[in-house]
Amino acid sequence: MNWVHVKMKRPSWFLKGTLKHFILLAVVTCILYVLKLSFGPEECDAKKMHCVDAKRIKRAQKYAKQVLQGECRQDFVKKEMGRLFEEKYSMNISPFVRREMETHEAVFQYEPPFGFQKFSSKLHGLLELLPEHDLPEHLQSKACKRCVVIGSGGILRGLELGLALNQFDIVIRLNDAPVQGYTDHVGNKTTIRMTYPEGAPLSEHEYYPTGLFVTVLFKSVDFNWLQAMVKNETLPLWVRLFFWKQVAENIPVTPKQFRILNPIIIRETALDILQYPKPRSKFWGWDKNIPTIGVTAVVLATHLCDEVSLAGFGYDLDQPNTPLHYYDNLCMAAMNGQTMHNVMTETRFLQKLIKEGVVRDLSGGIYCEFCTKAS
């Protein structure tokens, strides 16, 4: 009886010890996270930043003007993508998720962001809230559309391309890249703001009154967040705990302005065009096979428009002290710490598009067509 009594006490002692270890581990994890935030990427010294050459500014502005003044070529970019990538590029993908896609097997082949496997009911609930699933009528009816995808690159700082960028039919901006305070360099027109929850601007002033808000869904709580934004509801605290940074609590647009990016666009970009390995989830996140929002937006633009241009793209890792973004003082060296995206593979892809004349690089960060030309 005494032996049985002793054996019955051991689980209680063991559980207490395990609980102590768990609490200690949680505390250490929190401390490490705070330290990571405190000692983030080092900022560049503004005094040491390179000034933009006056000749380069002139050439960039002249080049953008020439692109806009040329005759718009209908269906040009789709035909060229089909020529370059053949069966790897689908000519007729719907850019945004539509109600009828709930029956498409391809949409549910993979988990987010490559598909909506296991999220059929959540997707259905979201689609019931969204009254529109395409471009606005005034853009759909336009015979030939020109897109510009504006990245966050520091190369935009000083080129003063804002006026030219505003003249494109569709202006696509990424994540929380700001317009306020930078209109001379990046313009202020926004047709599409494409992002995921953690990347959405926190300031209501960064949302264009008639622009579309295109959401990329990566995980389960992203569906909850989008539903709260569309219904203008408060996101529960327990849901907010699952995001790796603060998320917007309100997106000041109407339900008809929300769109969900078709995950087939991400799958086409990653698996077919960039030739990344098939998705394989790990304990935290994915293998290094998720394309950046930027390069995904470029592929999206080829499905939306007849001609596509880029601005603010390009990571020059050989110049670690140059500005990473146009809106802050982070150094290019900060890119060395990222592990999710394959930057070099994406750069080669964009270089191929520009050298083949499929898209234009207005700021010359990927491949500069105007740098050696007379001004």
Automatic annotation (TrEMBL):
Family: Belongs to the glycosyltransferase 29 family.
Protein keywords: Disulfide bond, Glycoprotein, Glycosyltransferase, Golgi apparatus, Lipid metabolism, Membrane, Signal-anchor, Transferase, Transmembrane, Transmembrane helix
Protein name: Lactosylceramide alpha-2,3-sialyltransferase
Lineage: Eukaryota, Metazoa, Chordata, Craniata, Vertebrata
A biological process from GO: lipid metabolic process
EC number per UniProt: 2.4.3.9
UniProt topology in membrane: Single-pass type II membrane protein
Purpose: Transfers the sialyl group (N-acetyl-alpha-neuraminyl or NeuAc) from CMP-NeuAc to the non-reducing terminal galactose (Gal) of glycosphingolipids forming gangliosides (important molecules involved in the regulation of multiple cellular processes, including cell proliferation and differentiation, apoptosis, embryogenesis, development, and oncogenesis).
Any one cellular-component term (Gene Ontology): Golgi membrane
Organism the protein comes from: Sphenodon punctatus
Annotated signal peptide: none
GO molecular function: lactosylceramide alpha-2,3-sialyltransferase activity
TM segment ranges: 21-39
Reaction(s) this enzyme catalyzes, per UniProt: a beta-D-Gal-(1->4)-beta-D-Glc-(1<->1)-Cer(d18:1(4E)) + CMP-N-acetyl-beta-neuraminate = a ganglioside GM3 (d18:1(4E)) + CMP + H(+); ganglioside GA2 (d18:1(4E)/18:0) + CMP-N-acetyl-beta-neuraminate = ganglioside GM2 (d18:1(4E)/18:0) + CMP + H(+); a beta-D-Gal-(1<->1')-ceramide + CMP-N-acetyl-beta-neuraminate = N-acetyl-alpha-neuraminosyl-(2->3)-beta-D-galactosyl-(1<->1')-ceramide + CMP + H(+); ganglioside GA1 (d18:1(4E)/18:0) + CMP-N-acetyl-beta-neuraminate = ganglioside GM1 (d18:1(4E)/18:0) + CMP + H(+)
Gene name of the encoded protein: ST3GAL5
Disulfide bonds: C147-C305
